[in-house]
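Pair request: fold both.
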Amino acid sequence: MTMNGPTDLNLSALLATLRRAAVPVLVVGAVLAALTYFYSSTRPKVYQATASIAALPGGSANTLINNTLVTAPVLPPSVVARAIRSPEVMQRAVALVTSGAADSPQRRTLTTQLDRDLQDGTSNVVTLTADVNTDFIGAYEISAKAMTPQLAQLTANSFVNAMLTWDKQRALQTIIRARENLRSQQAALTTGSVRSGLDTQTLTALRVDLTQKLQQLNVLEQTVSGTLSGLASATLPLRTVEPKPARNAALVFAAVIFFGVLLAFVLDALRRRVQLDDLHEFSVPVMGMLPPVRGRLDSAQQLTSQSSQGILREQLDFVRVGLLSALAHGRGGLLSALAHGTHVPAVVVSSALIGEGKSTVVAGLAANLAAHGQRVLVVDADVFRFQQLQLWMPRSQPRSAPDLQTAEGLQLWPQMIPGVDLAAPVTGSDVAQIAASIRAASRQYDLVLIDTAPVLKVADTLALAMQMEGLLLVADSETSRGQVQRALQETTRMKINVLGFVLNRSRESLRHGSYAYNPVQGNVLDVP
């Protein structure tokens, strides 16, 4: 059985994902937070008042008091919570609120909300918090919300009074049942005295005893009490509890950040970006990993300036050496071809999709080759975009410049920089004619680099690559693995000689720093 080892966490990929998601997530979070803030600010103000009641044991240490008091047993918090939502308590509390406050829109809204809570069995207006021990002895807090401080205070106190009344009525049920029992005995004694055979003296004694017991019940009724008693009345609230625009906006912003970043990671995992290990799995050599270039490259001059130093120069050196090595050992070998005076090798440079940086790779590689003594012809065969013309030609310089030459079906701009000439086909998209023109013009050079359209977008790229010495594929580090795999499958199906990959904009190449170069004199790409 093969055991898979632990996978290292790719921190650079995670940071790259965060950088990509940072702007949209922050913008969305800020917009939603602002909307939440303004919406919360328009909501009616809500105040909350809290009153408390005590849950006490149902007896006393004094026997005389215990004999003269009628109490109810203590209740668990769940029963008290159900009681405060019962119709008896709710209706009495609403009646106290209605009688204690003048008619107003706020009072009508409050009573409507209380009626809705009664029907739905919810506690949106009044909430109960219990703080009791295992013997159910402790305190309960009753909190009430309303649109004015006075209504909030009145509602909390009204529910306390309603709960105390309910608890007293619960204890009073014992006396009510006892009175009903004694009265039924009185009635039975009166109607059944003849059949019972009791004498007048005995009947009189029994009636007197029942009368005394009823009188005692009347006395006990005045002293009846429940297990709940008022502890603290509600005070007038000074601050609102709702709305809280700043808190709501902060919560929305934090939620958007959290779920936005989570969504970015999920989408990134589903997209499966191409990595160095993925390219190695394709059995095609990776010739270099070019780092992200600072700023926006509007011209080849900017690119050649940046490629003269640092990690970009080092990685372009790797691409150059790898490319020349692959050409020297493939299809009879470049060295053998040059020795026998045959055609100069021409390499098609392409990518799977648009925007992966193939054109900048062509320009940077051409400059690097020229800096090492090679004469390079750059052919802009991407007839739909002509990126090389935009890179090498200054915007102020027309394409029909005085030094423009036309030869072998190509428009030629010589010496864009020392050692690099630029060409573009004049035959449109005729692949066979473009290939013939490149072959005819390549005799004066050491290597031809052909910038083409992406292989998954334009089929002519595959047709042209079939007639050249090989294909160099540029893969952006943000491209999905599936797209690169599709491009490689297409080239394999067409039996195209794929020389290797260039992983572009790879932050992995920045991990180990740069083997720095000293400033040079003269040509910016001259090697000391």
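--- second member of the pair ---
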Amino acid sequence: MADRTDRQRSTSPRPQGRVDVDWLGRDLLGTWVERRLAARAKVADPRYQRVDDLTMADHRERVLEQMHMLVADGAVHAAFPERFGGADDHGGNIAGFEELVLADPSLQIKSGVQYGLFGAAVLHLGTRRHHDELLPAIISLDVPGAFAMTETGHGSDVASIGTTATYDEASEEFVIHTPFRGAWKDYLGNAALHGKHAVVFAKLITKGVDHGVHAFYVPLRDDDGAFLPGVGGEDDGYKGGLNGIDNGRLHFTHVRVPRTNLLNRYGDVAPDGTYSSPIASPGRRFFTMLGTLVQGRVSLDGAAVVAQKAALAIAIRYGTERRQFNASSNAEEEVLLDYRRHQRRLFTRLAKAYAQSYAHEILLTKFDGVFSGRTDTPEEREDLETLAAGLKALSTWQALDTLQEAREACGGAGFLGENRIVQLRADLDVYVTFEGDNTVLLQLVGKRLLGDFSKQFKGASKADIARFAADQLFDRATSFVGLRTLSQDVRDLRNVKKSSLALRDRDVQRDLLEDRVEQMVADIAGRLRNAPKDQAGAAAAFNDEQHELIEAARAWVELQQYDALDAAVERMPAATKEVMTHVRDLFALTIIEEHAAWHLENGRLSGARSKAVTSTIEVLLQKLRPHALDLSAAFGLGDEHLRAHIATGAEAERQAEAMAHYAQLRAAGTLPVPEKRGRASDPSAQPIATAGAAPVPPADVMSAPSADSVSAPSADAADDEHDAELATR
């Protein structure tokens, strides 16, 4: 509260809003600047770039060659131990890896399979003996590998996979077996052609006891590329994207591997078949093993943000050059980005990209802290897994939304392969599915929110619980009778400017976002409190709440994104901060507008303020228009990274040529007269009016632009009063 009072009393002069592109660009690069810039240098190298007209077979071979180039360059070593030539740099490894999406998403994902999944499984699930024996060949790419977790019959539900690993005491071997078709390992990178070994996830069975899912190192092919006895598979073939990756299926028929091929950091089997684990709880053991592989979700979150930045940079550059329709001048057509609807479709997504970028930096820092060991506690791991699941879900969904909107915003030019957006859209489609289906991931986040909610009452007295229930009842009653919204109307006096001013207060924004999370979680918990205790009844009750739970999880993730952007804005230089405050406000109000129905239904917004949300967004769009190119330039993506013809200035040259042509005709007096104007100056050319017919309007009325196509006056003059007052808050 003191913080808020200080802001209200501030009388410092308003800074002149101007984006310091260099400062903001450096800030967006985050902690691992050198790793990102090194990766962007590779993105700019044609040898790493996607060639669009290759066959699927040639694309796969090109990506494999690029993988060997990464090895030669030392780019793949970062996360591995120093004794293998690495740097134990987990955060930096991900930061560089996710930038490769701009070279070719197939390269990014194939390298992720090799080093972020296959190699990381050996590193994090194996012990030092496995590291010494296996990692050198994995790092050098002498042994390309597959990460065989997903099955045809079970994707996100890993605990229910059908593949088994049964221990044979007599031979001291595990027998890997897929007992039915649904247990085939599926959608695996490197499985169709290149993989020589795989980390196979199977249920460990010894002495007749199923100890749950564990990981085993299993040979697949001989040196000639032929499957070893008992191993079989198929090519997944052509896909909707990522065709530079040889995805395929694997199955195993009583394949024997030595006992020591169990990656035994969290569970081991003695020669006599006795099972042991440092983690007694099977459930905790399972989630700990899977948690070590969270970097896949972290990297997908980052790559999705990078792809959004690329699409927005392309669309905004094009939008500042492309002209369409005579709205305010007969001599020049309007620049697309001057149309308010065009601003809304791009700037709202620009604000989300900034929020997601800063949220990802927090996630990456948390990941690095846990995996470096500096902050590796059970609580930190749980927080990391929750944040990674939530951010990955929203950013990959948002990437598809942004890529599609950017494509449409560029018209037919956006559909051309030379302008990159359609290929990125196709390749990123599956990002919403792998490393966890987004809907399932949000359900995991929702369960965590419910768990944290219930912990509030652990050990609480009856009096504490009664007070909480009373507060909840009062809160509901306040909303039900409209006291909250009445209070808003009294403060605003139904004045749009006052409503807008209130909505641009960061405390108001955060309260709205946070209240939504807390209320939704409390409502769900309240309804589940009386759920049946039997398994079937409890499952049915939880299923009834699934939609609301996922929406609560989404709201929580949006709050994390807002907090990340807000914290970043607060530490920015004054002039940049003024512009970025508009970006933060636009992000917050866009989210609030998307959920306006909830805020109205639950009495968080009055009708007047809800309307003001939309009108304030319109004001913010106008304020950000002069800074659009700077805000996209801060992404640091040059022509060599975007590789989109429409983002190179070619459209501006074409427009200049056209305008010069018509200017020359006007100067020479040879510009043909439009038919309507000619009729207006020649009465004999006017059509004869029939009885009851409306007269033909004069030419200046006929050519007047429609109300929705005319750009409104600058919002700066109209809104100076708002900003002056906001500056004191």
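Observation on the second member. Confidence is low (pLDDT under 50) at residues 1-14, 685-718, 720-729.
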